[in-house]
Design goal:
The chain has 91 residues and is mainly α. The chain has helices at residues 17-26, 39-52, 56-68, 77-90. It has one domain (13-90). The protein has four helices and no strands. The longest helix is centred in the middle third of the chain and has 14 residues, at 39-52. This is CopG family transcriptional regulator.
Length: 91
């Protein structure tokens, strides 16, 4: 490995049409924003992401999607117990 590299002739990604296309395809349907989250919330998502093998941003996105569309939220143990109790009473 060299101690120093010469990037004087390097081009920016925005100057390379094939890289511009790749970047556009990767970001399709997504918007970059700045968002402040509490440290403990972010740490919890990062820990869960590491345990599950997913990206923490994907988990945050899924949680936000569940909040705006509760019918898409994963079933929790408490919700399952409530539904089972209701069904058993009705039977």
């Amino acid at each position: 490995m060299r101690e120093e590299y010469d990037f004087s002739d390097a081009k920016r990604a925005s100057e390379m049409p094939h890289l511009v296309r790749l970047q556009a395809e990767a970001a399709k349907g997504k918007t970059r924003i700045t968002l402040y989250l509490d440290d403990d919330v972010l740490e919890a998502f990062r820990e869960r992401a590491e345990a599950d093998g997913h990206g923490y941003q994907t988990l945050i996105n899924d949680a936000l999607r569940s909040a705006i569309r509760p019918e898409c939220a994963p079933v929790t143990v408490d919700a399952l117990r409530r539904i089972l109790r209701e069904e058993l009473r009705a039977a």
